[in-house]
Amino acid sequence: MATFKKFSGLLLLVLLFSVQEAISCSMYKITLNGKTIVGCNEDAWRTTSRIWFETRNHSYQYGAAFSGSRFDGSNGFAPQSGMNEHGLCYSRLASNIKKKDHSGFENRLKITNPTAYLKDILHNCKTVDDVQKFISRYDHSFFLEDVFIYVESSGKYLVVEPYLMTVGYDSKYVLSNFCPSETSTEKAMQLTRYRNGVAFLKDKMDTSLAFCTALSDTMSVCREKIGDGTLLTSIWNPKDGTVNLYFYHNYQKSVEFNINEELTKGNHSIEISKLFPKNEEFEKLATYQTPQNNGKIRLFLIGIGLIPILTSLYFTIQYFRNKKQYAKYILFFLPFGLVLFYYMFVLCTDINIFYFKAPYKHYSSAFVSSTSYIPFLLLLLIIPIGGLIIKTYRNSAFSKTSKFILTLNFIGYITLIGWFIYWGFYNIF
Questions:
Q1: At the topology level of CATH, where does 24-287 sit?
Q2: Are 118 and 79 spatial neighbours (Cβ–Cβ below 8 Å)?
Q3: CA 31 – CA 153 distance, rounded (Å)
Q4: What are the strands, taking DSSP E only, across 56-136?
Q5: Which of 8, 11, 51, 127 has the highest count of CB atoms within 10 angstroms of its CB?
Q6: Are 64 and 55 in contact, with CB atoms under 8 Å apart?
Q7: 35: which strand partners?
Q8: CA distances from 22 to 46, 307, 355, 404, 427 (A)
């Protein structure tokens, strides 16, 4: 029993803390006639997007502006994009490559505070060469799920992958969620954001705000299910020292900040949603409930995953006490419980399911994709389960405890079906 409790506790911790956050982003840079523009799209399911300004001090040589939406405790918000007072721009994009046994960076400094590390680069580097020297001191394979790009006002740029840094001079460059050195052009073109950006820039190029806004719009996302997608677009102008923001894939209104003017006001942070008119799609996102933003829902799913397994365990004990009427309940609840437990694990760890249309198709796992039909299985089984419970109430051989456990299962399943309806898991047509 002690071993079982430890195992249950371990599973609970895994479900509580293993949240998969998928942040799909894209960016571009254009250099024409001595002017460089850097555009960044942050596609996230957060509602806490901010822009903030940090002045120079005894630790920082240069002031800088950052945008981001992920709160990192005492470090404040983690920077997703930014630019310092010398026009050095930065963008962070999610990616993923296989970890190498030997990075070659074993003797370098370890990154212990990624948020501080990323901000330090803009605060202490003036050019791409400075950035390369700075990063070369560290084991940047720490960021195994990220690719970074730094662009200076001349248009020269540096792509930082987990195991490689590459300097580039292209007048136009588009990047999305992949490591360039590990990804073929054919595979990169499968990413819609990247493909749209490359196509837009194929036969034309301009650095005007109107052109770059149209390009950012082309590379943005607005999904059908609840209208979610690109959270924030930032268009950085190193020459003028400005940034134009567009909120929640609405490109009709922009807010512009002059970096140096804002830095004269001292350190300060601004909630971006308050800078723009009310956005119905954003309001829907802000009130949309999932296990990732509502701890009570997560605990409910964990409970639903465990209840049928514990039920089968209870009935197994009763069976070996010569109560043979429990046999068919064991045959049902044990396999069903294992299937349901795994699906609850998927729901608690894969946020994508709640925002993409049903049936959800996982990008790499056909097995996870197949779990999208479990809500339909539960819907088909709910009436037979109800029938079984009615029979137990009519059979005096079943104890009150058994009847209570079965009723608890039924109520839980009905509630779960309600959540499936709310999340649109049955909307396949």
A1: Penicillin V Acylase; Chain A (3.60.60)
A2: yes
A3: 9
A4: 64-68, 70-71, 77-78, 81-84, 89-94
A5: 51
A6: no
A7: 32
A8: 11, 29, 11, 40, 23
Report the sign of the C-alpha dihedral through residues 66, 18, 351, 94, in that order: positive
Encoded amino acid at 381, one letter: L
| Domain locations along the chain | 2-17+292-422, 24-287
Burial degree of 319 (CB within 10 A; 0-12, 13-18, 19+): middle
Predicted pLDDT of residue 4:
41
pLDDT confidence of 322, banded at 50, 70, 90?
Answer: low
CA distance 397 to 387: 17
DSSP 358: S
Residue 34, both tokens: 């001595």
Using CA atoms, how far apart are residues 184 and 99, in angstroms rounded to an integer? 19
Burial class (CB within 10 angstroms; exposed 0-12, middle 13-18, buried 19+) of 215: buried
Mean pLDDT of 316-334: 72
Pairwise CA distance, residues 17 & 293, whole Å: 12
Neighbours of 330 (CB within 10 A): 17
On the question of pLDDT at 5 being above 50, the answer is no
Whether the predicted pLDDT of 88 surpasses 90: yes
What pLDDT, on a 0 to 100 scale, did the predictor assign at position 14?
A: 43
